[in-house]
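Sample A.
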Amino acid sequence: MPAAAVDGELQRVLDAHDGDMTQPDVQLLLRTSRFERSLFAKTAKAAVDAGVAERYVRQVNLEGQILASALFAALNVLDLTPEQRETALAAAHAQLGAEADQAAAKVKAIEPRGRDDVA
């Protein structure tokens, strides 16, 4: 039953019991309503988190493309031999790989432990 329907039924049952919230059917509908709202909040938060994560990935990809373009432009200006260019790119790749490993370890340390963390 959708949240609006639960709330409507809750109001109808409350009216039938003159607002007595201690009645078992009122208590059941209150629990159901709270559960529906909690589930909606968790789902909304997960959707927002997924959108934020997607935006972050796009941003990191863009930054990587900009960095690669700048590196290639710098190497082109230097007029390096193919061997020198390969050595420079290998050094940059090794450094970026080490930085990526460190960043991945930091991210893993702060990642949520599971779906129960979604509030």
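Sample B.
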Amino acid sequence: MTISFLVIFFCWLICMSAVFTSIWYEDSEEGLYSTFPMSITSLFAASLTVYDTQKFENNKTIGIILLSIFVIVGNIILVNLLIALLSEAFYNVSKEADS
């Protein structure tokens, strides 16, 4: 069950990286979203609340909205992962206590 949340999170990360790369691939050669691997790295860092909204040179409003959506949905997925881990641990402990 917990693996499925990680798969969902990484699918979300890859899909949003493709979106960010397709919008900002021409901004600069050293931009955060100029290549697909850089987008993945930057968005993973954004899920850990390390992001810079000043890097959106073109389409700044769309960039802030998309980044906000990514961070909110990504954090919801990660909180669900935490809940699944705690539920599984509680189930295992209660199963051992009953036997």
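B remarks: Residues 60-98 form the longest helix (39 residues). The chain is about 75% helix and 0% strand.
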